[in-house]
Task: structure prediction
Amino acid sequence: MSSARKPGGARRKKPQPARTPAARKAPKRRTAPAAARASARAATAAAAQVAVAASAPVASTPVASAPVASAPAAPAGRPAGRTIVIEQYGSGIGCQLRQKKTLRALGLRHPRHRVVRPDNPAVRGMVNAIPHLVRIVEDTHAA
Result:
């Protein structure tokens, strides 16, 4: 059976439309040197501080304020309130793109990877969307 193509894979190229010299090469965008950018940033920050200082009211008498009671802070690296530990036990390879994005949104990267997330309906919905890939592990540190 004969081939419609020429032997060796040589094909005729399509003629390209003529372009104007301006369309051939777009000018490169030049950025300001780092020192100029830093000084411009400092000038903008200084102007913002002056504007804030000018608009701030000046109190003539000191106002006694009661100490503000704050909620106890969560340990470093853990969300405040109730949390759940989510473990990925299935691979995202071969899954739909939406399921892969859900894994990444939960912060999971590979099987047996565990993350701590707040226990709220949004996170629970993400876990319920991919039950074949993740499971909720017993959290011994839940508040």
Remarks:
- The chain has a mean pLDDT of 77.
- The radius of gyration is 30 Å.
